[in-house]
Every structure is written in structure tokens, then in C-alpha cells.
Amino acid sequence: MIIGIPKEIKEQEFRVGLLPSAVWQLKKRGHAVLVERGAGIGSGYPDGDYAEAGAELIEPHEEIFARAEMIVKVKEPLPSEYPLLRRGLLLFTYLHLAANRPLTGALLAAGVTALAYEAVEVNRRLPLLEPMSELAGRMSIMVGGYFLAKHRGGSGVLLGGVPGVLPGRVVVLGGGASGVNAARMATGLNADVTILEVDLERMRFLDITMHAAHTLYSSQAHLLELLPTVDLLIGAVLVPGAKAPKLISREMLRVMRPGSVLVDIAIDQGGCAETSRPTTHDDPVFVEEGVTHYCVANMPAAYARTATQALTNVTYRFVETLADHGLVDACRREPALASGINLMDGRVTCEAVAAAHGLPHTPPFQWSRS
């Protein structure tokens, strides 16, 4: 198979789809790998590393899409890339289509087979999303603490406090991978941490493993009780494949103290606050109702080398299977891959994406068997 690794063109996106070591392994298995010049530089992997691994270095950007049978990316195609999409192309990347109607329409029109990292499910886990969720969760406390500083417009509260001064209060919405990692970082700073969660078994797990954090059943009433004294609010909710639920209204923000901070990790899926809108690393925050919002849609790109290594660790197994066997046989060998197919041959194959946009849903391969 011909595998293409384009350079990411999203603003301030420094990650790359595969490491040079993964390219070497694919070449060893007889596959051709095309890498756009400069694709890995932002992650600390120069063109020479890919050339030494056996990749063919390509430019311009358009040629990667024209020649590759499978494109391995990090972020979704941008509007300038829509004309490069074509029927028969297999796209393997993060997509978050439930929150992106224009991209969904472009992929459908092109007839692309779109396989989303965030939708691949194994035993009720999302293994290709977890590393980036872990990274974003840990980052959320770092950036949240930074924007609490008075010179950044914050309330001037140090999350860990000092002897004789109470620590800052952190509330985490969601006890999944990103929420747990946010809570661990916050408790490590000695902050006062509460995790809101709806899954009782998950709360029991958190209670056993995270003695320094409190758990509370997630409800609007409980959140409203907490908001007046919260310094840092972390939105870490996730409904796999679907848009994030809007748990925080504008009215709820008004009860928070001026200078408090909201980090909305769920912004890729539309955000969990009514006031959230995507931002970039160049201009990461805005203020609504006196609350600083951090809503960067590609948070892990800030630590691109770590993120690229973590991503390749979990994606390579599936990339190799797809390259060796093609989509249909790969899905037989790795059934989890079928759960990641969002679109195929102009049809919506992910139920959550279809529901988000009011489109018909057809499970993958169903029509090919009729």
C-alpha cells in the first residue's frame, strides 16, 4: 500500500502522523511511504530521519493526497484540503465530525472512507484517543494555573496555596482519561479537587485510587453549589463520537468569581460550555462573564514531540494492519477498526455523527452484503 503522511496545516499544529521508526517498519513490510517535506520538523524529526527510514520525501502538499492510498494524519482536513479528497482514499486521523458539519459534507461528497481515531473502541475504551486525552488533562492544570495569575487577568490564586493559605479549588467535569489526569496533576499541586461524574462504578474506582480528590455525582444542582467558590473549572466530558453536552450555561458562569478560569477540553466535540468557542495556541483565551475561557482545539500540539510519540504508540498497530490487509480484511482481523469508520462511499456509518447532523445512518459494509 502507498501511505501518505502530509504536513499538518492547522494553525500551530506541530504533530506529525507517524514517527520515522514507524515508517521504517512499514517499509520493511513492503509498503511505500510518502512523507511531505517538513512534516516532522515541529515534533523534532527532520526530513533526514524519514529519508533514512526509507520514506520518499514529497512536495507539494497536493501530491501526497494524489498519490497515497491511505493518508495518516493527526488533525482533520481543513477547507483548503477539501478539493484534494477523492473516492477510494482511506483517511485515518482525528475527525470529530459530530461538531463539524462542513467537513462531514465535504468527506461525503468526495466519497472518502473516513476512519476516526477517536471512534475506535476496544472493550468500551477509546485507545487511540486516550493518550491525547491524558496529555490534554495534564496540560489543563498547567495552563489553568497560568491564567489564574493576576498579570494574565486571573484572580491571583495559586492552586497549591502556601502554609497558612488555603489552596485553590479545582472542579473537574468528567472522570474519564482527561478528567483523571487533570485531577492527578491538580492534587499533585495540593489543590482542593472535586471530580463530578455520573457513572457510580467509575466514582468508586476514583475514590479508591485518588484519595486526595473528592467525588460528587454530576448534576446541575451540585455544579451550581460548587461554582461560586471554584477557581479552575475543567470541562472533560465525552460522549464517544457525539457532540459534547452543554453542561455549563452562561447564567451558571455568572455565579463564578471574576478572574476564575474554564479550560474546555471538550472543545473538539463542540465544547461543554454554552460560551465556549475554539481558540488557538497563538490566541488561546477570551473572557465571558468575567471568566477566562481556554478553548484551544489542539491542546496536545503544544507538546508535539511527546504527543507524536504517544500517538504513534497506539496508532501504528492499526496502520500496519490496514496497510497489510486493506480495510475489509483489517476490520475482520481488528474488529475495533469498524467502529472507527465514520463515513464510507458517501454514506454516514457512525450513528452518533448521523444523529448530530440529521443524516441517514448505514452501518459499515451493510450495503456491500446486500
Give your account of this protein's structure.
There is one protein chain. By secondary structure, the chain is an alpha/beta fold. The protein folds into two domains: 2-126 and 304-369, Rossmann fold (3-Layer(aba) Sandwich); 130-297, NAD(P)-binding Rossmann-like Domain (Rossmann fold). The protein contains twelve helices and 15 strands. The chain has an eight-stranded mixed β-sheet, with helices on both faces. A seven-stranded mixed β-sheet has the order 9-8-7-10-11-13-12, with helices on both faces. The protein is globular and about 65 Å long. The chain starts with a strand and ends in a 13-residue tail after the last helix. The model has no long low-confidence stretch (mean pLDDT 95).
Counted by DSSP, the helix tally is 12
Query: Largest beta sheet, briefly?
Result: 8 strands, mixed
The tally of domains stands at 2
Output the helix-strand order: EHEHEHEEHEHEHEHEHEHEEEHHEEH
CATH H level, superfamily name of the largest domain: NAD(P)-binding Rossmann-like Domain
Helix fraction?
25-40%
Shape: globular
List unreliable stretches of 5+ residues: none
Strand order of the largest sheet: 3-2-1-4-5-6-14-15
Strand content: 15-25%
Total strands: the figure is 15
Q: Quick check: average pLDDT?
A: 95
Query: What is the CA-based Rg, rounded?
Result: 21 Å
Q: According to CATH, what is the class of the largest domain?
A: Alpha Beta
Which class of secondary structure composition applies to the elements?
Answer: alpha/beta
Q: Can you tell me the CATH architecture of the largest domain?
A: 3-Layer(aba) Sandwich
Gap from first CA to last CA = 28 Å
CATH topology category name of the largest domain: Rossmann fold
